[in-house]
Amino acid sequence: MIDRCLSLLLSEGTSGKRTRSTRTALAALVSCVALQATISSEAIEAALVINLDFTNFSTGAPANGDPILGGGTVADAQSVIQTAASIWEQAFANSSSSIGWSTNVGGTLTQTIAVEWAPLSGSTLATGGTGWFSSDGRWSSGTLTWDNDGSSDFFVDATPTESSEWNKVSTRDLSFNGIAMNADRTSYDAAAGVARSNSDMLTVAIHEIGHALGFFDTFPAFAASDLGSDGDVDITGGPFTNAEIVYAGGHTTFQMLSPAGGDFPYDPGGGSFFPPANYYPNVMGSSILTGTRKRLTETDIAIVGQFLQFDMNHVDFDPQPVPEPSSLAVLALGSAALLGSRARQRRRDRKRRLRTGQA
């Protein structure tokens, strides 16, 4: 919609026979951008709403510029986490859930996740999860806790809606009970820097929010999606009907051989690349590789859609992060400046023609 607004208004603004004044055109552009922001917000909140509670986020948070944040800021970290939540929301924006929870109003599910910092043991980057009510199995409270003991270093992306830091992307399918599904959307081969040497905070946030939505085997709805109790989630609707996706505990267990070329993934300790090896390619696998970014795959989305009983025929299996409304406002201001600049140039040209008798 934004592109259409710009093309229409810019063409009118540069036409010799304008049908509206520049001021009117600017007002229309701002209205168009505002409408797009409203539509985007409403679409994201159509069927899955993730409310992030940052009340205690500053408590225990690293200082701005700390190595834990990869030199980034706490505000950027919060933006990354919000982007991760928006990607999950976007996947189910046009669907609806039929799960029998008392909180399921009009097919919309709402989960609140408290986000905070704490020292975590071992190599744990973060943890996510949720409680539930025994009466109907619905969510009670979600958590997302980030490690602050100094053993975890993150890449906190100041522009999390794009992945220009990485030069290559691996996008591949696997067969699950004879059903081909995308299982790998991994960005890799970043230039030297924190995107290459640290753990990507966006990937970790998407993963842990998945757990906070109930992606683990003791969550009642998840357990019910394993129809034969045989260690796989059975997909019963939509384009991947009859797929069976293996898991253990709270993670999928399938692996892939790393892409050819000898440059995946980067080994920050050895200063080179690992040889070809099996790895967990999807977001909800049991580990992520330093220097890589994972996007949600069809397998991740299908499992969550299955156990939360979304209409799989209306699920977006390739969701993209949606810019915040503030970004759209910046776009409007930039476009307004462009239109204003062109209007001033037309006035100068007209005065010049009048002086030279060319009007």
What does this structure look like?
By secondary structure, this protein is of the alpha+beta class. It folds into two domains: about 1-45 and about 325-359; about 45-325, no CATH class. The chain is about 30% helix and about 20% strand. It contains eight helices and 16 strands. It has helices at about 1-15, 20-45, 75-90, 195, 200-210, 220-225, 300-305, 325-355, and strands spanning about 50-55, 110-120, 125-130, 140-145, 155, 165-175, 180-190, 200, 230-235, 245-250, 250, 255, 265, 270-275, 280, 295. Strands 1-2-4-3 form a four-stranded mixed β-sheet, covered by helices on one side. Strands 6-7-16 form a three-stranded antiparallel β-sheet. A three-stranded antiparallel β-sheet has the order 9-10-11. Strand 10 (about 245-250) and strand 11 (about 250) form a beta hairpin. Helix 1 (about 1-15) packs antiparallel against helix 2 (about 20-45). The longest helix is centred in the C-terminal third of the chain and has 31 residues, at about 325-355. The model is unreliable at about 1-20, about 25-45, about 325-345 and about 350-359 (pLDDT under 50).
